[in-house]
Amino acid sequence: MKDLISIADLTTDDINNLIKSAVELKQKKGMNLLEGKVLALIFEKPSLRTRVSFDVAMKQLGGHTIYLSPAEVGMGTREPVEDTAKVLSRYVDGIVARTFAQRTVVVLAKNATVPVINGLSNEEHPCQILSDLLTIYEKKGRLEGLTLAYIGDANNISNSLLLACAMTGIEFRIASPKGYGPNRQLLDRAGEYTRGGNKVVVTEDKKEAADKADIVYTDVWTSMGQEAEEAKRRAAFTAYRIGPKLLALAKGDVIFMHPLPAHQGEEIMPGLLDAPQSVVFDQAENRLHMQKAILAKLLK
């Protein structure tokens, strides 16, 4: 495993080992596992959690980061992505890319001689989902046998979550308006990974998805790059807002998850982030600890 571009780059054992490593690293600070290592952060999109968590993770492991803004690099415009990958490979020990197109990360990885990590693309967000699995493991003590209900748009978050749930034995249910659900290719791929009795359920009924679920998860209705569709999407998703009534359909010890940033009053009712069921800010913290585990795995 040289790169982390997709959840599909991992095996179930890889995921379990990363969670175990993250749990251990969460208890320790000031380790010099990556002393002298340098990580380049190439971001085409704004970022809070991804940038800060990777920056702090490298520092806590004894390494350093270099942040490169879109204006500084201009991948695919100022110079080809292939050349960017080859040049950076001569300077740094790893690359985190937060891009619009999945293809950009794929081309970077193909041409770089150092590890490339997908910090978010329009198709997947593997680092977010690995940290989510860490949070679920901490709260529930296991992954296999749980049921996760995802309510909302089938976006990069749900794509990675679908694959990860299939690989770790979590039943994945997704409720989306017609035309906004997961594509058949992704569903077929997830079907190849399902373990034991877990399954994938696709529905337009959010109540069906949430019924007796262990985890209820949602994300924004309009992702970065979809701003022109905002009004159309708001109209389509209004009935998929999450609040206390929907959570009441889930199990009594349900946890609520959101990758942030959240739009209170849109995909969630105001106040839900701070409700007793919410583990959203634990999710955010765990980005740091999972990034450490990923970096230790790929750069050590």
Tell me what you see in this structure.
This protein has helices at residues 12-26, 49-60, 70-73, 81-89, 102-111, 126-140, 156-168, 184-193, 206-210, 230-237, 244-247, 280-299, and strands at 38-43, 64-68, 94-98, 116-120, 147-151, 171-175, 200-203, 215-218, 255-257. The chain is an alpha/beta fold and 300 residues long. It has 2 domains: 7-125 and 285-299, Rossmann fold (3-Layer(aba) Sandwich), CATH 3.40.50; 128-283, 3-Layer(aba) Sandwich (Rossmann fold), CATH 3.40.50.1370. A 5-stranded parallel sheet has the order 7-6-5-8-9. A 4-stranded parallel sheet has the order 2-1-3-4, sandwiched between helices. The model has no long low-confidence stretch (mean pLDDT 95).
Provide a brief overview of the structure.
The protein has about 300 residues and is α/β, with parallel strands linked by helices. The chain has helices at about 10-25, 50-60, 70-75, 80-90, 100-110, 125-140, 155-170, 185-195, 205-210, 230-235, 245, 280-300, and strands at about 40-45, 65-70, 95-100, 115-120, 145-150, 170-175, 200-205, 215-220, 255.
Structural class: alpha/beta
Measured between the Cα atoms of the first and last residue, the distance is 13 Å
Extended strand count: 9
In total, the number of domains comes to 2
**Largest beta-sheet details:** 5 strands, parallel
Low-confidence stretches: none
Oligomer: single chain
* Gross morphology: globular
- Radius of gyration using CA atoms only: 19 Å
Mean pLDDT: 95
Q: Give the spatial strand order of the biggest sheet.
A: 7-6-5-8-9
What portion of residues is helical? Answer: 40-55%
CATH third-tier fold name of the largest domain = Rossmann fold
What CATH architecture label of the largest domain applies?
Answer: 3-Layer(aba) Sandwich
User: What's the CATH superfamily of the largest domain, by name?
Assistant: Aspartate/ornithine carbamoyltransferase
**Share in β-strands:** 5-15%
